[in-house]
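Q: Convert this sequence to structure tokens.
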Amino acid sequence: MQRLTSLRPALSRRAGACRVPRRALANLAQNILHDTPRPSIPPGYSPARAVNAVNSPLAAHRYGFAPLTSQPFIRFNPSSDPAFADQQTTSKFVASLQAHFDTLPSDPHAPVSAGRFRQYSRAVVLPFEDKPRVYWSPGHVKDGQDITYYNQGVFNPEHNSERRAMPSIPEHMRSELLEKIILTDVALCDWSVDELRHPIIVGVHFIKTAPTEEHPVSKTTPNSLHQDGHKFSFVHLVQRRNAVGGENVIAAQGGKYAGLQPSEVPEQDILARFFLESPLDTWAAYDAKCSHYAGPVMQEVPGPEHSERSVMICDIEPMVAAVCPI
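A:
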């Protein structure tokens, strides 16, 4: 310790002799920047788009669909591109989904009057793999049932920061074509260079709203304009039968109108109103850029005939540490 103490004056004098005035450093930096050739950046260049379009192995899963980049939402149907799957394979897949949705358990967090049924599981995609694939995360066992927890934080005021246990999607429904849809959704997202070097989390929801004669109005949750709290969300129609309503409304200006009904939003800020009509009709949201709403579903022909609007939702986000985000 004594030796180190005796060296400090000498070190201080030496450091003082080497000190460069700040103004001189600033001038030197300016000269370096001025003399260094700058790379030519093409108009509209985005690192995320460049990586997605050229370097990412996910690009092959885009098929002919426009990606969700600068716009707040997109619409497409994966079955419209013959390269996605042949018609027979798609029809068989849709039929298996529809049959499975007939057996969906009730949403354990909704009243019977809501007429809502659902399952949920979580998966992971590694975008840096040469051939990306879907890895399903294991659920939990609760009361002898396989469940997966879901928490939207503050983005669902009806279940504010509630950790909801949902029945998991069974393994026999995790088919090749379902995983192909998941990979297409992930490929159409707007990823940065860094995000493509991290795992991507996908929450997969099977949701059916099914009004009955006794409970004629079936509602989604939350029943207002909202954001999902995930970076991207994709909604794929499974089936509509004997159903009216379920209108999708997209509002501009990020989350400005979250919590409101579409009728409370100025017409100039309503970006779109539409219905998903055919199996696998899809729309997707860039969550930070819009809020959205799915209207209640009613029976088209009141009575005992079955009614439903069924969808598969994929919420997608990069897996990054909260304490040191990329």
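The helical segments are 2-18, 22-35, 47-55, 87-101, 176-187.
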